[in-house]
TrEMBL record:
It comes from Vicia faba (Broad bean). InterPro entries: Bet_v_I/MLP, MLP-like, START-like_dom_sf. Belongs to the MLP family. This is Bet v I/Major latex protein domain-containing protein. Residues 2-152 form the Bet v I/Major latex protein domain. PANTHER family: POLYKETIDE CYCLASE/DEHYDRASE AND LIPID TRANSPORT SUPERFAMILY PROTEIN (PTHR31338), POLYKETIDE CYCLASE_DEHYDRASE AND LIPID TRANSPORT SUPERFAMILY PROTEIN (PTHR31338:SF16). GO terms for biological process: defense response.
Length: 156
C-alpha cells in the first residue's frame, strides 16, 4: 500500500472566481458562518487570519465525527487564485505525517467558474485509509460558500 497520495476534485460554482477566492483569501474567519460542517474556528497564534505566520485551530465534522486540526497558510498566489494550506496536529496528526490542502479557483473558457481542491498527504502507516472524507467535506463547504455568495447582495 502507498504511503503518499494525492486526491483532486473540481466543483463548478455559480459565483465568479474573483468573488469566491476573495472570501477564502480575505474572509476565511467567516467560513464557519457559511459552512454547516465547520463547527468552530479561532486564531491559535498570530493576529491576521490571512498571514502565513498565523496558525488557526479548526473544529469540523467528517464522516459524522467532530474532528480538530491546526492550519497555516503555506503559499498564496493571488494571480492564480491559488492557496496552499498545511494541516497538522489534532485528528490529522493521528493519521498523517503531512497533509496539505490546495485550492485553486478557476475561471473557465465559457465564463463560468470552478473551485479545484487537491489534498496531498503522507500517511503514518499503510493501514490508514486515504482522506476521502475530506473530499466530501470540501465539496460540501464549497457548495455552502457558493450558495451564500450567490445569495449575497452587493451594497453600493
Amino acid at each position: 500500500m502507498v504511503l503518499y497520495g494525492k486526491l483532486s476534485t473540481e466543483f463548478d460554482i455559480k459565483t465568479s472566481a474573483d468573488k469566491f477566492y476573495k472570501l477564502i483569501a480575505t474572509e476565511l474567519h467567516q467560513v464557519q458562518k457559511h459552512c454547516e460542517r465547520v463547527r468552530y474556528t479561532k486564531l491559535h497564534e498570530g493576529e491576521d487570519w490571512h498571514d502565513t505566520d498565523t496558525i488557526k485551530h479548526w473544529t469540523y465534522v467528517i464522516d459524522g465525527e467532530v474532528q480538530t486540526c491546526y492550519e497555516s497558510i503555506e503559499e498564496i498566489d493571488e494571480q492564480k487564485k491559488r492557496n496552499t494550506y498545511k494541516l497538522f496536529g489534532g485528528d490529522i496528526g493521528k493519521h498523517y505525517k503531512t497533509f496539505k490542502l490546495i485550492l485553486q479557483v478557476i475561471t473557465k473558457a465559457n465564463g463560468t467558474a470552478a473551485a479545484k481542491w487537491t489534498v496531498e498527504f503522507e500517511k503514518i502507516n499503510e493501514d490508514i485509509l486515504p482522506p476521502n472524507g475530506w473530499m466530501e467535506l470540501l465539496g460540501k463547504n464549497t457548495r455552502d460558500i457558493d450558495a451564500h455568495l450567490s445569495k449575497a447582495r452587493v451594497v453600493l
